[in-house]
Design goal:
The chain has eleven helices and 14 strands. By secondary structure, it is α+β, with helices and mostly antiparallel strands. The strands form three sheets. Strands 1-2-10-7-12-5-4-3 form an eight-stranded mixed beta sheet. Helix 4 crosses helix 7 and helix 7 packs across helix 8. The longest helix has 24 residues. The protein is globular. Bound molecules: N-oxalylglycine and nickel (II) ion.
Amino acid sequence: MAPSFSDDYTHFAVKKGHGVKGISELGLKALPKQYIQPIEERIDLTKVLNKESIPVIDMANLDDPNVADQVADAAEKWGFFQIVNHGVPLDVLENVKEATRAFFQLPAEEKIKFSQENSLTKNVRFGTSFIPKAEKALEWKDYLSLFYVSDEESSRFWPSACKNEAVEFMKKSDFVIKWLLQALMQKLNVEDMDSKRPLLMGSKRINLNYYPTCPNPELTVGVGRHSDVSTLTFLLQDNIGGLYVRKMETDAWIHVPPITGSIVINVGDALQIMSNGKYKSVEHRVAANGTNNRVSVPIFVNPRPEDIIGPLPEVLKNGEKPIYKQVLYSDYVKHFFRKGHDGKETIDFAKI
Ligand code: OGA
Ligand code: NI
């Protein structure tokens, strides 16, 4: 049933499982007011640097030491880069995007079974916006968030419309993720990579994001300004575009153009903390789109919830002062999810 009054849209989207996709399909002329963002949070195209772009790194020859140099350089100076020739097969990428569309195409009654309230497990969560209860204005996005425990658990609890494709994407990405982290750690003089791996990539979460066509895209956002709480994020986007990254230490933004077959990589807060600020987790946001639906599939490569994260001893060895304290990773993540998106403020939680 379509809602009839403005305030019912939240109920329709959030409680009934229609999401913003359901609102989009009502064909409204105007954006419901809950989704209207304050002016300063909307994307101002005059602040977008059209001539600049984040680095694109060719991973075809991993024996070439230049590749590791470029990765570390991009993680320091941009916090964001794209990789091409990374070895994840194109059909694996296509399949997980298609599976994302298939999941969101399901009727609301099917999707709502995976909401926080109804889901049989806390590792599977279907939702809309970011934290509707905590946000001043809602975001124009629906998502399915899947915390990976094991193949068996995924097969049992993840939605059948997308579980095989999501697991396959994670599996096929594992090699290049390990390689990237190893390159980044070598530049920090970490020698014993094997012992660091659980801390750097001991848990993974994959999100399937759906950004439906929006009646007034200029008044809202798909995702508001934030940095990720991951170690690294490994993001697949389709060919629509709309992801903007802050140019470090400026108030300007850079668009991340879709490149077929590429993956967008960004440093998350956990890696900024562990590297004592050498690698930067940079703010980013997603525009809403007036003519197209968009999907994206980030894999968040994370420490384990029970890990204590802080500047690595190897980084502090030469007498460098720590700028972050040791924090329990699950406390850090809880802090992130207690509030709406607020740019880089999350990391203050770990500042000394
Ligand atoms: C995120 C995110 C970007 C995108 O999910 O954290 O920043 O392009 N997504 O969907
Ligand atoms: Ni993000």
